[in-house]
Design goal:
It is a single chain. Helices cover 32% and strands 27% of the residues. A seven-stranded mixed beta sheet has the order 3-2-1-4-5-7-6, sandwiched between helices. Helix 5 links the parallel strand 4 and strand 5. The longest helix has 14 residues. The model has no long low-confidence stretch (mean pLDDT 92).
Length: 187
């Protein structure tokens, strides 16, 4: 999709209630932070901040990044009583951001698969820049529903994109639409 149309489509959805904005933190995130001490976390494509709110309530210092100003404004309202850093920015330009560093955990639920193949490489490089060695990266991404599906990314492509700086740790096939959870460790 054309980048401008992509931005307009997402911006329009945040005037309403996007289907992915359930208000419920991801069970995979809940399980992951239950097994580790609180630290610094970044949510890439944070939307309205549901997962950030959950993490702050469990002692995490959080940063959220999203390219839709309305989504970030909603996240700010949701997190107003909790310390947090919320930034309107392009996730392919993470290296250039002035972020608290380094992070112990990164979360991406549905952002990576919406990027072009070229932008995915920029995203992966930027993410690796901000992650502490040994930190964990949780990625939920759509997989292709049919050969040539532009709305998904294969397991091989995900692992190749992050393979230079991250080690695959676990993989969980999603349910419903072809999708998966990828768990990586920063080298």
């Amino acid at each position: 999709m054309n980048p401008l149309l992509h931005r307009i489509w997402y911006a329009t959805l945040y005037w309403f209630s996007p289907p992915w904005d359930t208000g419920i933190p991801a069970p995979e995130l809940i399980r992951e932070i239950a097994n580790r001490p609180a630290g610094r976390a970044i949510d890439i494509g944070c939307g309205t901040g549901t997962n950030l709110l959950y993490m702050t309530k469990h002692g995490w210092e959080v940063t959220g990044v999203d390219f839709i100003p309305r989504a970030v404004a909603k996240a700010r309202r949701k997190l107003k009583s909790f310390p947090s850093t919320l930034i309107v920015a392009d996730v392919t330009k993470l290296v250039a951001l002035d972020l608290p560093r380094p992070y112990d955990l990164a979360l991406d639920i549905g952002c990576f698969h919406s990027l072009t193949p070229e932008a995915r490489g920029e995203y992966a490089h930027g993410l690796s820049h901000w992650m502490r060695k040994g930190s964990i990266y949780l990625l939920y991404a759509w997989q292709p529903a049919f050969p040539g599906d532009p709305n998904g990314v294969s397991r091989e492509d995900v692992e190749r994109c992050f393979g230079k700086e991250f080690l695959p740790d676990r993989y969980e096939q999603g349910t419903g639409r072809p999708s998966a959870w990828y768990f990586f460790l920063r080298k």
